[in-house]
């Protein structure tokens, strides 16, 4: 059985890249990437077989998405029995006769284009719906994404398989800094970074380590409380150390299709102060954290509750292990074997 994995592309590797890398290992597959901010050598160090990469330094928005979809549409992959695609543009791949095609959905389109009433937007949405309905097998990364797919396309996914999280890189037994809280994520409105920062105005006894960069950084820096440190983008070693040293992690992102960051907090054995919204409230329960409304006062209260309670680090860690890479490899391999039988 010959398998190819086709990913539409990425400039900065994230959760979607973890999915395609682990899928190539699970299925012993070759990899095709539509566009990439990384050189081919970066991918070759992470996947088991051949890699075909279109190198680029700028994604270019909707126009580049269309260009990528067109290039994937014209891929000649007739030598493969099964093709797994990942990313919105990749589902435009056209399989040959007797070739199995399955598509992993990280999220339905959330861009402003989908709420645009223009003729161009209408045509793009129409084509997207037609192409989605033509894919014989869909896998979603969460129940929330599966629900959104049904609402947007009137199409039920075959299975939900959560993305892989590298829980092994975090230790639940590190020495903690007794007043340190961490928040990891892009500094943008959807991540609600300013809400977390404002919560610490009423928490002078605690210190927030804000890991990440983004369009809100300048605004936050103009009025940052003295107990908030903006670290920006950091390397893996610094990220791991900062998370492991903290006593709680904050995650407030809205419309989060899955949410890898809360699982990484749990892998470090610490409670999560998470927003009480899907999909975050599907990941956190009374044994792993505190759910809060997305307001500074509620977040501050949630942090006090989390810090003031005794937690079983091993229990929290074990929840994270449910999302480990081996679990993902097994699930995706079993699904492919099922549809290929």
Give the percentage of residues in beta strands: 15-25%
Ends apart, CA distance between termini: 12 Å
CATH H level, superfamily name of the largest domain: Glycogen Phosphorylase B
Strand order of the largest sheet: 3-2-1-4-5-6-7
- The low-pLDDT segments are none
The largest sheet is: 7 strands, parallel
User: Helical element count?
Assistant: 13
Element string (H = helix, E = strand):
EHEHEHEEHEHEEHEHEHEHEHEHHH
CATH architectural designation of the largest domain = 3-Layer(aba) Sandwich
CATH topology of the largest domain: Rossmann fold
Q: Strand tally, please? A: 13
At the first level of CATH, the class of the largest domain is Alpha Beta
Total domain count: 2
Question: What would you report as the Rg, rounded to the nearest angstrom?
Answer: 21 Å
Helical residue percent band: 25-40%
Overall average pLDDT: 89
Shape: globular
Structural class: alpha/beta
Domain Glycosyl transferase family: 176-320
InterPro entries: Glyco_trans_1, Glycosyltransferase_grp1
Protein name: Glycosyltransferase
GO molecular function, one term: glycosyltransferase activity
Task: Walk me through the structure.
By secondary structure, this protein is α/β, with parallel strands linked by helices. It is built from 13 helices and 13 strands. α2 (40-44) links the parallel β2 and β3 (51-55). α1 crosses α13 (325-340), α6 (193-199) packs across α11 and α9 (260-267) packs across α12. Residues 176-320 form the Glycosyl transferase family domain. InterPro entries: Glyco_trans_1 (IPR001296), Glycosyltransferase_grp1 (IPR050194). This is Glycosyltransferase. One of its GO terms (molecular function) is glycosyltransferase activity.
